[in-house]
Design goal:
Blueprint lengths: L6 E5 L8 H14 L3 E3 L14 H17 L3 E5 L10 H12 L4 E4 L6 H8 L2 E3 L4 E3 L4 E2 L8 H4 L10 H15 L1
Parallel strand pairs: 1-2, 1-3, 3-4
Antiparallel strand pairs: 5-6, 6-7
Length: about 180
Amino acid sequence: MSSRRPRLYLAGPDVFLPDPMAAAAAMKAICEEMGLEGVFPTDNALTPNAGESGTAFAARIRQANLDLIRGADGVIANCMPFRGPSVDDGTAYEMGFAAALGKPVFPWSGDIRPLLQRTQARQYLAHDGRVWRDADQMEVEEFGLPVNLMLVDPATGPVSASFTGAAQVAARWFQTQA
């Protein structure tokens, strides 16, 4: 690896916060302290073109974010529960995309309770004698993991309890790759 700082795409629903730029600045500052360069989805600074449909603008945002991931050395992913007990689906997609490219993924979540426990806290669950089922009778997996099992294997290390923890794991990982 060259002497440049590893670039890490900062995936997560933080772009939906009331002040996403403040969140981005805070995460980038932590990365800087760890010898990393944080890249936030809004670094693309995209705006809708005159007359552009919402669908077309969304497609441009998606492509720009995938390009940022392609240009990054890895991903730090915010896996906090988002609009339910699970990780944001866009973040999950970005994690899978990065993993498919062979890039390391460093997940974090301030809520590392098992997925089953978080689901129980948000909705009615029943145990049918074999498995846990939600109100729609869908099985809720129970592996004691804080995220869906598909997001654990591509991760480089366990789900950290904070962004700082994930950045520390990333910094150590890249130091061993040098």
